[in-house]
Amino acid sequence: MHRFGRLVLLAGVLALVLGSCVRLPSPRPSSTQYYLLESAPPSDTAENAAGLRLGLRKPRLADYLNTRALVTRRGANEIHFSEFHRWGEELGPALNRVVALNLEAQPDIQSAEVVPWPRGTNFDYVLQLRVLRFEGVGPPPPGEDADDDAPIPEGHSQMRMGWSVLGPEGESVRVRGQTRHRIDGWPVTDYGDLVSKLDTSLVVLAEDLRRRLQTLSTSGS
Q1: Is 155 within a domain?
Q2: What is the number of structural domains in the chain?
Q3: Is the model's pTM score more than 0.85?
Q4: Which of 39, 51, 154, 169 could form a disulfide with 101 if both were Cys (CB 3.0 to 4.6 A apart)?
Q5: Tens-level pLDDT at each residue, the chain (221 residues)
Q6: What is the DSSP letter of 36?
Q7: Is-cis flag, bond preceding 116, omega within 30?
């Protein structure tokens, strides 16, 4: 028993020594980058106190855009979902938030509320967005075997947004349309630049919607 006890003690000491030599791998920093859409700064000259009150329904996204990955299109039928460049929030609510802020920065628009709407809120018009394109378009970046000084190919950003303007009850359609916008000169490896260009396209969308709403209000529709 005495010899057995010494063996047990020795085994315990060895276990402690071996355990102290084990080094757990340190956590590796993530190489994934996250991006947020940003609204345009409000205009100091806009007078919105007596402007239109708008409600924005939940946008309808094309199925392939319903993802956190940033999407690039590389041909008529080929798309790429980036593994390491992702939206920092769900794209649908992000689009609604930024479009609403951009609309409120427009002249003659008092407010733009996104769903869920505050209880008892009344609107002049309700907007429904359909997101058909919201991505980068261009060739793939140089491969791993390319020379370090190989030029980065350029593409463009692309937004195609369908929209419907409905009456205050949110049922009757007053007008439908689409806004298309692209910006050239996107280096296909610069996803921060792509998001910035898509920000600009959302400002163009708000300006287009404001013009259509002005026409409706003037005609009394």
Answers
A1: yes
A2: 1
A3: no
A4: 39
A5: 555 555 555 555 555 545 555 555 555 566 999 999 999 887 665 556 679 999 999 999 999 999 999 999 998 899 999 999 999 999 999 999 999 999 999 999 999 999 999 888 899 999 999 999 999 999 998 877 777 778 999 999 999 999 999 999 888 999 999 999 999 999 999 999 999 999 999 999 999 999 999 998 887 66
A6: -
A7: yes
Contacts of 101 (CB under 8 A, 6+ apart): 39, 40, 42, 112
| Type and span of the H or E element at 137 | strand 125-137
Q: 97-121 b/e with 16+ CB inside 10 Å = b?
A: bbbbbbbbbbeebebbbbeeeeeee
Confirm if 58 and 64 have CB atoms less than 8 A apart.
no
43 in a domain, yes or no? no
**Boundaries of domain holding 128:** 56-142+151-219
For residue 137, give the nearest of 67, 76, 199 by alpha carbon. Answer: 76
CA distance 85 to 92: 17
The answer to whether residue 31 is domain-embedded is no
Tell me, yes or no, whether 38 lies in a domain. Answer: no
The tokens of 217 are what?
A: 């209000």
Residues in the chain: 221
CA-CA distance, 221 to 112, in Å (whole number)?
19
- The enclosing domain of 93 has a CATH number of 3.40.50.10610
